[in-house]
Design goal:
There is one protein chain. By secondary structure, this protein is an alpha/beta fold. It has 2 domains: 101 residues, 2-Layer Sandwich (Nonspecific Lipid-transfer Protein, Chain A); 291 residues, Vaccinia Virus protein VP39 (Rossmann fold, 3-Layer(aba) Sandwich). Helix content is 41%, strand content 17%. The chain has a 9-stranded mixed sheet, sandwiched between helices. The protein has a 4-stranded mixed sheet with strand order 2-1-3-4. Strand 5 and strand 6 form a beta hairpin. Helix 6 packs across helix 7 and helix 11 runs antiparallel to helix 15. The longest helix is centred in the N-terminal third of the chain and has 21 residues. The termini are far apart. Pfam families: CMAS (PF02353). It comes from Dietzia natronolimnaea.
């Protein structure tokens, strides 16, 4: 029999996790019966508290239910959002969270007896409220940075504190010229599963790849519009570039200043409080990592506007981010409802089509191509999850309670599931500024 430990939730801190009243009605019963019948077909093992089970013993994924009634009630009333909240509340557990999300999220999204809050919020195609990011009174209001505390970031990343996808040393590369004239370089999965001590070098390799796409080198003027926790501007400065970067957070400003000083790069990097719209002058390169993580489509548009305004003729824009191949899958739309409540209000991830269109609409920019490194990003997130799980006590000591830790574990697992299932792609895209005659100042689009 599975050993079940009691779980407690501080409802003053997590009011949305209050248990649904009652057993959930007929819809919950129908969801429970349907999943029991479907378990074998979808590759799921379900263990119940009374020692009964559904699905094959050696199924690819296994769910251990601690509180079946609340689990079914949340799925019926809140769908995939309820799946995440039920996990946060400790009503079910598993040894492979990403695999379970990869199986259950699409099943729930396609079940008519489960609620679909993602579809209600974002539309069937995930774009009823484009990107979540809004331009409030002008371009200055677009927020490109995540609000994840540095203390939390340090608990799951490596010494670089990079939160983008890494590029590991192994993995074949293939190049294809597309009909539109752009080049696509595909990175195959690493030859063997990377280890945690591989992550730092892999993150530096990823940053170097992005900077090379942007043409950042000795003497070049580079604007890093999303500094993260400092690795991108630092690597650019180490190449001999004159780097400018900014942040809207006073906390991050202080942390970045300290890190640049510790690395002996304070004079090589100009750091200021503000956003991309505050940047002036001309640059040879604009670099951004995950500009849509908070603002969605509007974040990418802000970066394109900045590049259009500041790049010299022949300068380059390089963007790294997670996108969906086409329109977001129903599972992604529903997971976005959970993410919007607990992680970011950006909504479903931007599609590659939307990102490419944002560049193509610019009168000055021309898309050159992209690098696809989805398999490497999936391995990156796997290592983050492993590291975060090992540092549970450190997280607790920093004030992240058990519910918060399960929330972040669910977030990382959902990202890994999306990358491994083909719902999401990890790309580095590059565009160049066209040569223009009698160029005049370009102002941001409102």
């Amino acid at each position: 029999m599975v050993r079940l430990e009691p779980q407690t939730v501080d409802l003053d801190r997590w009011p949305a996790l209050e248990a649904p009243s009652g057993p959930g009605g007929q819809s919950a019963v129908e969801v429970a019966q349907a999943l029991r019948r479907s378990a074998r077909e979808i590759g799921l093992r379900i263990d119940y508290p009374d020692s009964t089970a559904a699905g094959e013993y050696d199924a690819p994924a296994r769910v251990v239910l601690r509180d079946p009634e609340r689990f079914w009630a949340r799925l019926a009333s809140s769908g995939v959002l309820g799946l995440g909240e039920s996990y946060m509340a400790g009503e079910w557990t598993t040894t492979d969270l990403g695999a379970v999300i990869g199986i259950l999220a699409p099943w729930i999204a396609g079940n008519p007896d489960c609620a679909h809050p993602g579809e209600r919020a974002f539309g069937r195609d995930g774009r009823a409220t484009p990107g979540g990011g809004r331009r409030r009174g002008g371009p200055v209001a677009v927020e490109l940075e995540d609000s994840v505390p540095g203390a939390l970031t340090s608990l799951y990343t490596d010494e670089t504190m990079s939160t983008g996808g890494a590029v590991f040393a192994s993995g074949a590369r293939t190049r294809v010229r597309m009909d539109d004239g752009t080049d696509v370089v595909h990175l195959e999965a690493p030859a063997s599963p990377p280890r945690r001590n591989d992550l730092g070098d892999a993150q530096r390799r990823s940053v170097d790849t992005l900077l090379t796409l942007a043409g950042v080198g000795a003497g070049s003027r580079a604007l890093v519009v999303t500094p993260g926790w400092g690795e991108v501007p630092m690597r650019a400065a180490e190449r001999g570039a004159h780097v400018r970067t900014m942040t809207a957070s006073t906390e991050r400003l202080s942390a970045l200043g300290s890190r640049f000083a510790a690395a002996g790069l304070r004079d090589e990097i100009t750091l200021f409080l503000g956003g991309p719209a505050d940047a002036r002058g001309s640059v040879d390169a604009v670099v951004a990592v995950d500009p849509g993580v908070t603002a969605g489509v509007a974040g990418y548009l802000e970066v394109v506007d900045t590049a259009e305004r500041l790049l010299v003729d022949g300068g380059r824009l390089a963007i790294s981010g997670v996108v969906s191949a086409e329109r977001p899958r129903p599972a992604v739309v529903e997971l976005a409802a959970w993410g919007s409540r607990y992680v970011s209000d950006a909504g479903p991830v931007v599609s590659w089509t939307e990102l490419a269109a944002a560049v193509e609409r610019s009168p000055r920019l021309r898309l050159l191509g992209r690098i696809e490194a989805t398999a490497h990003h999936a391995e990156t997130v796997r290592l983050w999850s492993e590291t975060f799980a090992l540092r549970g006590r450190d997280a607790a000591a920093l004030g992240f309670d058990a519910v918060y830790r399960r929330m972040w574990a669910f977030h990382l697992a959902a990202l890994e599931a999306g990358l491994r299932r083909g719902w999401l792609e990890s790309v580095q895209a590059v565009a160049t500024a066209k040569t223009t005659l009698n160029r005049r100042e370009v102002t941001p689009r409102s």
